[in-house]
Amino acid sequence: MKDRWEETLFHMAGQEQIVMPESLSDKIEGILCKPKNGKFHMSVRKSLILAAALILLCSVTAVASVGAVRERMEAMNREKIEAYFAQIYTTKLGADNYNRPYFDTEKKRMEELREAYENEARFPKGELTMIEQAQEYKGRGVAFLGATSSFFFPDEEMSDEELLCIIDFMYKRDYSLQKMNEMIAAGEAQMPVIREEEVEATDEEILATDAVYEPEQELTIPYTGDLELDLTIAAGQNELFLAGYHTVHRMAIGSSDSELFFDDFGAETRILAMCQDKNGDVYMALWQWLDENDIENRTMAVWVVSKEGKLLHKIDLSSYLAPGRQGYVRRMTIDHNGWLYLNVAGLKSSNEAQECEILVLDREGNYVSSITSNEYAFRLNGGLGVGKDGKVYTYIENFYDPDNPQNKMGIASLDVERGMLGEIYYDIMPENAAIMIDIIAQGAESDFVFWGYDGIFTYNLGDERAENVLPPYEAPCDWEGVRSCALPDGRIVFADIGDYRIEEHPLGTRFIAVPEKTCFYYVPGM
Q: Residue 223, Cα to own-chain centre: how many angstroms?
């Protein structure tokens, strides 16, 4: 999943107008794709982040590291450099997080102190306090939790010394990333070894009772099935649906094992998104390749399968594809009318050339409406779901403005009859929430529960702000690359994949989830 932080890295690299020498490009490829001793594994998303960061830092750090700043960076011993790099490599989340946003006065002083740091060698006397658990922070000074890349600020305004500690930490971290990548490329260092933490599973006595269905019940369940998860998981009425390559399994709530639900696809297939209607029928948006040796030649459709696992019919989406596009479906949901809502890219309405953001079809696949907006931006990774009021809502945000890059986010209901947004609840996310919402669903005690890389949030219609009920530094698992969905009871379910194996295939390299390294987490959105 490409989040806002990742987009920002590439945008910043583009602004720097970096032309990457062929030798550096080869080094990056070697670092990310050719591990030494077969020990290195990295998720696709993290490899993209490290590559983008390396490109960026080779430009930015070279400018900043002059004079006293450069001497300060080069004075770090190898142990310190490796420690900074290990923190970047092993963090559960792909972006920095904060227990509170910067005050406006802190932002202004931060810029002034950054200039003084670079140009006047104004360095802090001390360093950030490093903690291993969020509970260790007692509200004094500035601390950093490496496991989730989280900064902890005091309630009162930070002093110049505390702000300088943050600036110094970021410079040392950036320099360490650049230096370690150079050393790894030269064969002078290796990627850090990640120690696997033993997962404490939920007590069997709880799993054997109806407590697993309670909206406040948190569950940690190591997977014992054999499905190699691919792109998506989805919540049914009282079960989960898990997609593998050309295979879909079903798994009861609270279970550790899954069973085959449907695999009669007849061709190479990837399931992009799934949902279940009130009758129990399962809708699957998918790609298919009739010739597995031709990666460009694929079809796109929605298959409808009964709750018994019998194919009912297929909805061909080829007529909705925009010229030159192959289309993508990220999220899908069904309203009380049985209308199917698709959060799409590369698809258009049936009689227009303009691409739409939301495509609405009836049960048989007939065109109902398409929705876009000239005022708000939609995102492919944005949420889509039915609220407690029965209306379908989607994620919206402001269009990117380089002069005002603050990301304002909200939700809006969908007016199908008019083909436009309905009620709009804009700028409802806390100031320090910078990454898009991926899940929108009805909450247990609130109108909505959201999930994104900034945490789990609840929201009631009409409230000024959503509330962060689970910040990233309290995440039960690695949120990078997790598969996720929302249960009808308001809980968010994460499928955390601890390891992958790489498989070469005519349709491209596959990163196959290792079943025995997969764990399911049920997190109450309360």
A: 21
Structure-model confidence comparison of residues 243 and 190, the more confident one = 243
Report yes or no: 280 and 237 within 8 Å, Cβ to Cβ. yes
Q: What is the DSSP string of 149-184?
A: TEEE--SSPPPHHHHHHHHHHHHHHHHHHHHHHHHH
Q: Tokens 């590291």 sit at which residue?
A: 65
- Residue 108 CA to residue 98 CA, distance in Å, equals 18
Find, among 417, 410, 416, the residue nearest to 396 by Cα: 410
Joined tokens for residue 63: 């400018």
pLDDT over 50 (residue 64): no
Which tokens hold the place of 105?
Answer: 């006065």
Which pairs count as long-range contacts for 303-309, CB under 8 Å and 24+ apart, including other chains?
A: 303/265, 304/363, 305/248, 305/261, 305/262, 305/281, 306/280, 306/281, 306/282, 307/276, 307/279, 307/280, 307/281, 307/282, 309/261, 309/262
**What is the strand order of the sheet 392-397 is part of?**
384-386, 392-397, 409-415, 420-425
Give the torsion through C-alpha atoms of 264, 268, 272, 273, to 10 deg: 0
CA distance 146 to 8: 21
Question: What pairs with residue 136 in β-bridges?
Answer: none
The values of phi and psi at residue 260, to 5°, are -65, 130
- The rounded distance, in Å, linking the Cα atoms of 512 and 501 is 5
Instruction: Give the residue among 520, 524, 521, 522 at the shortest CA–CA distance from 258.
Output: 520
CA 134 to CA 436: how far, in whole Å? 24
Answer for the pair 333, 360: CB distance below 8 angstroms, yes or no: no
Torsional class of 324: left (φ above 0), alpha (ψ -120 to 50), beta (otherwise): left
Backbone angles phi, psi at 87, to 5 degrees: -65, -40
Contact 498, 517 (CB under 8 A): yes
| pTM for this entry | 0.82
H/E segment holding residue 70 = helix 67-74
Report pLDDT digits (tens) over 92-135: 777 788 998 899 999 999 999 999 999 999 999 999 999 999 99
SS3 140: coil
- Residue ranges per structural domain of the chain: 4-185
Q: How many other CB atoms are found less than 10 A from the CB of residue 293?
A: 9
Res 19 pLDDT > 50: no
Contact yes or no for 487/522 (Cβ under 8 A): yes
Beta pairing class for 268-276 and 259-262: unpaired
CA 440 to chain centre: 14
- Give the amino acid at 39: K
Q: Are 50 and 94 in contact (CB under 8 A)?
A: no
